[in-house]
Amino acid sequence: MLPFGDLKHLYGYLRDEDRGAIAKTLGVKANTLDAWLDPLNDLRNACAHHRRIWDREFELNGKPITTEHVIDIVAMLLHALGDRGQLNILRDCVQSFPADLPNNVNAPRIAWPDV
Asked: Which InterPro entries match (predicted)?
């Protein structure tokens, strides 16, 4: 099993046709999947190392994006893979985010795909 970061680099070394074929199976263009891998890797590392993921910024093509945007990407990929069980777990986890947050923490607002 490869660490996600190594998998991301391995994907980057593939021929354009192969990256395109992988992206097509996920219902996106190759350049979209290429761009998604960095924030997904950052999200994975934040989770694995017990860092805060809410109310912070990630980067997509060198521009800041919100945690909600990264969770949207994860939800779209799970939906494309047909993994409704994991998608439901992710949705339940995000929806259980406490409603009584301090003013400086934003509750996530996710556009969930139909499952």
From this structure: Abi_system_AbiD/AbiF-like
Domains: count for the chain: 1
77 lies in some domain: yes
Residue with tokens 């992988």: 22
- Whether 46 maps to a domain, the answer reads yes
pTM of the model: 0.71
| Residue that the structure tokens 């950052």 belong to | 42
CB-count exposure of residue 55 (10 Å: 0-12, 13-18, 19+): middle
Residue 111 lies in a domain: no
Region label for 61, one of left (φ > 0), alpha (ψ between -120 and 50) or beta (otherwise): left
Paired tokens of 54: 């809410």
pLDDT tens-digit profile of 24-47? 988 889 999 988 888 888 888 888
Burial, 52: exposed, middle or buried (Cβ in 10 Å; 0-12, 13-18, 19+)?
exposed
Angle at 47 between CA 77 and CA 4, to 5 degrees: 55
